[in-house]
Every structure is written in structure tokens, then in C-alpha cells.
Amino acid sequence: MLDKETVALLPYKLVTVPSWGESEWGMPRGMRADEAFEEIHRRCTASAIEQDQWLSELSALTADDVTQIIITTCIKYEVTPDELLAEMTQVEFGY
Predict the structure, then answer these.
(1) What value does the mean pLDDT take over residues 43-64?
(2) Can you tell me the mean pLDDT for 65-89?
(3) What are the Cα distances from residue 8, in Å, to 5, 18, 46, 59, 88?
């Protein structure tokens, strides 16, 4: 679990998806964020990834509008960025 000092260093701007309401998860956004942090911490620890590294990666994900657009759109359509790229290589877009 993250300590208060570490959480305070994280950027305030986080990905939000309006369609993910409390009723769909059964718990408030703050509790969902805590659960997400705990899972990220657990999985990264199991993969020998240092906390500083994954916190840096998390910060980079929230750093610019382009990244935010990509992340929120992938979440909205329930596709991963890898799946999106794979689809793009198979289909020629007209634009």
C-alpha cells in the first residue's frame, strides 16, 4: 500500500471515465483507486519492478492530453492499446 507522501507526489489529473459510476462497481471512486494502487503495487512487486519505476510510468501516462485521449478511448471501447495497434496494422484507414 502506498504511503501518503508517495500518493501526494502523484499528479492530480487522473484518467476519469464518466460511464464508470459508483453503481457499476459498488464502491466510491476513491476506494476503487485504492484497490487499483494496491493491485499495481502487488503485481509490480511480483515482477521485481521497483515502486519508483511504476510511479514514474503512472506519472508519464497522465502527462499530456494525447495520452489521456488514447487511454480514455481504449477504456471506453474496452480495447487495449496493443489491440488497437494490431487492428490498425490489419486495416487501411481512408484518412
Answers:
(1) 92
(2) 89
(3) 5, 24, 24, 12, 38
